[in-house]
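Researcher: Quick sanity check before group meeting.
Model: Go ahead. Protein one:
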Amino acid sequence: MRTLTKSLSRWFDTRAAQPPVEGLDRHRVDWLRCAPFLALHLACFAVIFVGWSWIAVAVAAGLYLVRMFAITAFYHRYFSHRTFRTSRTFQFLMAVVGSAAAQRGPLWWAAHHRHHHNHSDEEPDHHSPGLRGLIFSHMGWFMTDAGFATDDRYVRDWMKFPELRFLDRFDWLVPLALGGALFVIGHALSVVAPGLGTSGWQMVVWGFVISTVVLYHATYTINSLAHSWGSRRFQTGDDSRNNFLLALVTLGEGWHNNHHHWPASARQGFYWWEVDITYYGLRVLAWTRVIRDLRPVPQRVLEAGRS
């Protein structure tokens, strides 16, 4: 009963019953805690009942792109690596958008990613395909007790912001709000513009459920496929790879070997022919001055990569 209560409480409060990080089981999956994650995948089959419309598919695609950008630009390049600077207000705004991707809060995300860079493809890396296989590195690792916990030692710089701690602790609030907003919008469109052929539930299934599941697995490929499939420009001491296809679906994260060689840069496609859509977006934001001080790739690194 105590185990059941602990797993259920973590659906609503990620800090509930969190034991010390040391000694947590890094192999046992907590299936009950992960039931909402699994249910979201099953909910994709609801498309059979709600059908589709161009507006619902367009919303799904748009939310995929917006939330992927928030994950890659802010959860990764900002919160994990601090490759540029911004105001506290915009920092929080983008943390909210990133939270809408339902990939936990910014502190959890950054802590695990920093841990990964410290131990990449070596014990105790949580998600190395060379250590525990492709499937576990893709999604199994965060379903364990060790994958669930946030090691605050890795994010002491962000713990001083109570608004970030709140988002991290109650990481279900923003996704729930997004789903509710999509239902309201879809229902309103069915009333005022029935010719669009959408509905509240159709908008939820496409705009949130399907879009989020696709976003999940596109993001996870960087943990799994980008450490097993692609080319290696730099000898980094791990198995990181560059992969053009993964760079396209993740808006630039597929240049993973580049990133592991020089993670301090806001740019992961180091050369003009390496498409890095997230970096282009960051340049636009820098032009509007909502962010600043984008950290570049040093010239010596670029020259070394050409040799």
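Researcher: Fine. The other one?
Model: Protein two, sequence then structure:
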Amino acid sequence: MSKLSTTQIEYLKNTFQDRVTFDDVERMLYGHDIAAMPSLIKPLIGNTIPEAVVQPVSEEELQKLTSWAAGHMIPLTPRGKASSGYGGVLPVDQGIVVDFYRLKKVLSIDKEKMTATLQPGIVWEALDRELKKKRLTLLTYPSSYPGSTAGGWLAQGGAGFGSYEAG
């Protein structure tokens, strides 16, 4: 468990400005996912309230945060929409939650190869809307399609509708 120093807090404030929070209520909200933790499990995982929440706006910012946190031995927990309910977004080592909310763009769509390059915070439904503009659609997607992110779904294993047929 890491505790941020005053210097580390100042670094985060200067680097991320209004995209970092240390607010108690917001941090508490980032300490759980969509499901309630079973009472028998909760004591085993302990305090899941992060020390800070950061929303990077670019891959470069994410790389900078990752390098800085690694250099200071501060745990990072990635977070999309926290819609899985399996505990994958719980910051069990506290540290910093990295919220991908601002990284939600489609970077490219290759119609020939039927592939898309995207940022992890994009919601599946928004991705599908962009694909439809190119007369494409998703072959596989989660049951939480309207509210889950591509990065979060893939990080949790990525099985859903069409997985058997499309891989």
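Researcher: One line on it for the slide.
Model: The chain has a mean pLDDT of 89.
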